[in-house]
């Protein structure tokens, strides 16, 4: 079972030793070499990283990587079992290895992180409070124009309160290729239609933010056999700050 799990990174960082993982320097174009494979070779959009985030790595893998199964993790976040403790070494030891992926992929179509629940927000209202509403509205117009068979799935996803986030997954490369064909058709069309020149650096990552929502729309339409897995973060998460910022955007 030929599996490659991309580990998207923009800086030098510890990487798992298991050969299933492929550290990928996203946004490498014009940057210092970190010693990892870069997303700036072959057919690539590496220079768009500031706006497309890890999607520059996905595009590179779509166009240049040959494998049976493909996945994406991040340099701080991995699919993992429950660690023995909260120590960094125990967290590293809990990260999935090739055998863990093989076992799940023999039973399921796709491996995903556990959903995030926003509780008091729908996916649409959360995006509108955190980002620019008009960008999401434009995405809906593009779906109606270019992929109308996905509009019902879009409406369902936007009305829910939970979402698969982080753009993390593992699935067959053929399925991934079909997803990328659909995703980038929408994203590149959106790029032509919106002006982000006045966006701050955070909101300039608009295409990355929207891709998390679009991934859920695509999943809704596919009706795949899904397994949800824990994600481990190698660095401490300030949940109080996250909750505060969420409520500030909602009620501020």
Describe the structure.
A 7-stranded mixed sheet has the order 3-2-1-4-9-6-10, with helices on both faces. Strands 5-11 form a two-stranded antiparallel sheet. The N and C termini lie far apart (50 Å). The chain is built from 10 helices and 11 strands. Helix content is 44%, strand content 17%. It has 252 residues and is of the alpha/beta class. Mean pLDDT is 94; it is low at 239-248. The radius of gyration is 18 Å and the shape is globular.
Top keywords for this entry?
10 helices; two-stranded antiparallel ribbon; seven-stranded mixed beta sheet; 252 residues
Helical coverage, percent range: 40-55%
> What's the SSE pattern?
EEEHHEEHHEEHHHEEHHEEH
Strand order of the largest sheet: 3-2-1-4-9-6-10
Fraction in beta strands: 15-25%
Count, helices: 10
Gap between N and C termini: 50 Å
Number of strands: 11
The chain-level mean pLDDT equals 94
């Amino acid at each position: 079972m030929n599996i490659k799990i991309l580990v998207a990174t923009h800086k030098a960082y510890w990487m798992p030793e298991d050969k299933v993982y492929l550290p990928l320097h996203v946004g490498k174009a014009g940057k210092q070499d970190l010693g990892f494979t870069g997303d700036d070779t072959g057919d690539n959009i590496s220079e768009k990283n500031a706006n497309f985030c890890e999607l520059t790595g996905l595009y590179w893998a779509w166009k240049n990587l040959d494998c049976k199964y493909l996945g994406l993790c991040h340099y701080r976040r991995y699919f993992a079992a429950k660690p023995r403790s909260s120590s960094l070494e125990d967290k590293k030891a809990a990260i999935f290895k090739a055998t863990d992926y093989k076992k799940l992929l023999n039973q399921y179509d796709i491996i995903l992180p556990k959903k995030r629940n926003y509780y008091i927000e729908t996916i649409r209202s959360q995006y509108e409070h955190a980002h620019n509403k008009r960008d999401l509205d434009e995405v809906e117009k593009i779906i109606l124009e270019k992929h109308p068979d996905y509009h019902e799935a879009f409406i369902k996803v936007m009305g829910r309160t939970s979402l698969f986030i982080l753009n993390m997954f593992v699935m067959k490369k053929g399925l991934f290729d079909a997803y990328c064909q659909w995703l980038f058709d929408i994203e590149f069309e959106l790029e032509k239609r919106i002006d982000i020149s006045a966006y701050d650096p955070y909101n300039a990552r608009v295409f990355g933010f929207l891709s998390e929502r679009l991934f859920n729309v695509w999943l809704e339409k596919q009706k795949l056999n899904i397994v949800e897995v824990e994600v481990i973060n190698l660095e401490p998460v300030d949940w109080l700050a996250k909750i505060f910022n969420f409520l500030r955007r909602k009620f501020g």
